[in-house]
Amino acid sequence: MDPKLTSLSQVLERVDGRLLDPESDAQVWPTGFPLLDQELGGGLRPGTLNLLGGAQGEGKTTFALQVARSCARSGRPALLLSFELEAEALLQKVISAEAAEAASSSMPLSVRQVRAAFEGTDGAGGLPERLGEHAGGLEALAAVSDYAPRLHIHRSTTTQTSLDVIAAAIKDVLAEHGVPPLVVVDYLQKVRVSEHLDQDEQVTQVTERLKDLSIEFECPVLAVSASDRAGLEPGTRMRARNLRGSTALAYEADVVLILANKADVVARHHLVYGANNGEHFKGWSVVTVEKNRGGRTGGEVEFRKHFECGRFVPDGRAVTEKLVDERVFTE
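Request: output the structure for the sequence above.
Response:
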C-alpha cells in the first residue's frame, strides 16, 4: 500500500495515541514570541511553509535566528541554512541575546563585545576567560552550550546549496536527533536552481520544493524572502505582493509574516502630533500576519528592537496605533 495513502481512521488513532502519550512530540513549534504564537494558533506547524519578508536592515535574519534559538532551547533540533552570515557571527548573536535575556544589569553583553572575545582582541585566555570579564558572559556561554548541539548551521552559498543539498541536510539532522527539525532558510531567493530559468520560475521552483520538503519531513520551514523594488520604495508598506516572485509565494505559503519598521508604517498623524515626532517608533518593529491558513489573518504585533544584543525583546504588544498601506514619505 502507498505509504502516503492514509484513512481517516488511521488519523484518528494517531491523534488519540499522541494525546495519551506524555512523551509524544507536540504538533506545534512555538516561535518564542508569545503574542505572535497566539496569532498563529500556537506557533509553526509541521508540513507548512512560512515566509518572513521585510525591508533590508529590518532584522529578518535576527528574527529568524531567534526563532531557531527558541526551538533549540525548547529541546527540539533546528537547522539554519545561512546564505548571509558565517556560523561564528550567528553564534556571537546567540550568546549576546542569551546574556541580554538573563541580565539583571542595564549594560548587557553586546554582540560587539562577544565578537571581540571571539577575535582575541578583548582580554586574555580562552573564550570562557574572555567572556567571564563581562557581566552575564559565563552564564550565557553555559546556557548556549546546553542547547548548542541542537542548533545546526549550514553555511550555504548560491553556487552550491541546491534543493537536494537542503534535503540532505534535513536528513542528517533527522538521523542525528530522531525527530524532524525546524528548518530556516535565509534566504529563499539564494537557493541554487537551474540557470536556464528566469527569476520568477526559479522562485516558483524553490517555493514549491520547500513546501514539499516540509510535508515530506513533517516539519515547519521558515524561509526569509527578499522584496521586489516596489516593496522597498520609501513611504510604501511592504505587503505579500511585494515578495520577489510573489505569485508562487502567495499561493504555496501557509503563513506570510511581514516585518516592518514601525516608523515607516504608522499613520502620519502619529508622527506629526506625537511626542518626539515619532522618533520612539523607530525602536519598534511591527510583524503583520499577512496570510495564515491555520488561523486568523491580519494580526499586527510589535516588538522592541535590541539589535546591539542581536535580538528582539520577545515580550511584545498588540499594535494600537493606526497603520496604513502607503503614506507620503517625509523627512
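Residues 163 and 191 are 7 Å apart (CA to CA).
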